[in-house]
Amino acid sequence: MSLNSKRVQWVVILGLGLTAGVFLSQETGKRKSSYAPVVIEKDFATTLAEMKAAKPELARRHKALLEERYILSNQPAQGVSMFRGKPIQTGVRVKLPSGTSWESLAQATPEDIREKNIFPAGFLGLPHPNHPEGGMVFPKFHIDEIKKQEERDLTRFDLDFDLPDHFLPEFPPPIFLTTRPDLGDVSQGKLVTLENFFELFNGILNPKQLEGLRLLVTAFPQQQFNQTQDRRSEKPSRGVTCFDCHANGHTNAATHLAGDVRPQEFRHRIDTPSLRGVNIQRLFGSQRALKSVEDFTEFEQRAAYFDGDPVIATKKGVSPLERGSQVHFMAELQELMDFPPAPKLGIDGRLNVKKAAPEEIRGEALFFGKAKCGTCHPAPYYTDSLMHNLRAERFYKPRLVAGRMANADGPIKTFPLRGIKESPPYLHDGRLLTLEDTVEFFNLLLETRLTSAEKTDLVAFLRVL
């Protein structure tokens, strides 16, 4: 081979190598990163103006999605309310695909439903109000009360909470303590905050528990509420508290995206679960399967507040909690949060037939029988403290909906059903607005083929838990 031939060969090899390098570089550039950008190139004033301008159209599109999926009108049940009197919403709110009925769906196989594309859209995972953006979003009634009490503003300039108030828990919710059941609701009708926790609970809690409560109502920096230029509050923010979502140790249905999964479209919306009954639970987080409330408390403040990104947490001001004292105190307080009274249940968690109505007795028999609810939700607290995979993806083909990938949810924690009428909306992401929706969802997924009358009886039983 001549010298020139060798030169040509090396030029070709070098050229191929450079081409491959450019190709790999481009592919790497296209691949989504697990990390959020740390250095923000755009100034805050520009971000603020752009997101404010985009907000009305985002809200319009998300409202249209909700109206396409659900009947959103206010339809309170007669004679049924939450503990402090807020009416329970009634009726199936998920809309059916054209030409179908709940009865015909229940008779179809998962394969038929998938191929015909007739799985109700309201049974798919519920997207965040702006799924590509994500982050904590609070109902306006909570924002207003915190602003009134603490002059701390939880308003986001880029988006608002999406579900109508009549589908949410009553506010402020009552507080029941395992240590003082004789007191009933100890909240005195107030939202517990840093402003009033001491006057409400001094003399009821011990000093450790009081300090735990103080920490639970103390604001810490969070992804959207902090003092950096990539916050989503108009003014620099002190942050959020644990009880900004778990209002009074219960829930106000504030929403967020789970920090566990990447890329963004696979992250699940979170419907804030109640802390009531934490003392009987053995798993924490809808999918994380954390093994203690101490683990959960520490994880939330260190990682979940910042989308599971410790780099961003450092930038925005994470405040690590001391495990041996602070986390312990907070966990002890959370474990005092009790379920609301259930006058029709005996000490074994089952119905007292002398107090129960006929439809409630029939509903209990269905719950532990044909409807298969009791398999995962046994008495007395109506949880088996395990994770279960419902495999809802049997019924539909994966698709991207409003920035959220509707595919397999994976294993989900079995939440306690005690006091369930006090905690709408339902399922881990709040996609089911009423108990009737929930019964239809599980009737389809478990293929139990309940009759209309049986569904009514089952809802009657769930309301007394």
Describe what this molecule looks like in 3D.
This protein is mostly helical and 465 residues long. The protein has one domain. 34% of the residues lie in helices and 5% in strands. The protein has 14 helices and 8 strands. Helix 7 crosses helix 11 (323-334) and helix 9 crosses helix 11. Residues 1-28 have low confidence and may be disordered.
Concise account of the structure shown:
The chain has 465 residues and is mostly helical. Helices cover 34% and strands 5% of the residues. A hairpin with a 2-residue loop joins strand 6 (399-401) and strand 7.
Write the layout of secondary structure elements.
Blueprint: H1 3-30, H2 44-69, E1 76-81, E2 87-89, H3 102-107, H4 110-116, H5 140-150, H6 197-201, H7 207-216, H8 242-245, E3 255-257, E4 269-271, H9 293-302, H10 310-316, H11 323-334, H12 358-367, E5 387-388, E6 399-401, E7 404-406, E8 412-413, H13 435-445, H14 452-462
Antiparallel strand pairs: 1-2, 3-4, 5-8, 6-7
Shape: globular
| C-alpha-based Rg, rounded | 25 Å
Distinct helical segment count: 14
Strand percent estimate: 5-15%
**Which ranges are low-confidence, i.e. pLDDT below 50, for 5 or more consecutive residues?**
1-28
Structural class: mainly alpha
- Element-by-element helix/strand order: HHEEHHHHHHEEHHHHEEEEHH
Total number of strands: 8
Widest sheet, order of strands: 1-2
Main beta-sheet strand count, sense and barrel state: 2 strands, antiparallel
> Distance between the terminal alpha carbons, to the nearest Å?
88 Å
What's the pLDDT, averaged over the residues?
Answer: 92
Count of the separate structural domains: 1
Helix fraction, binned, reads 25-40%
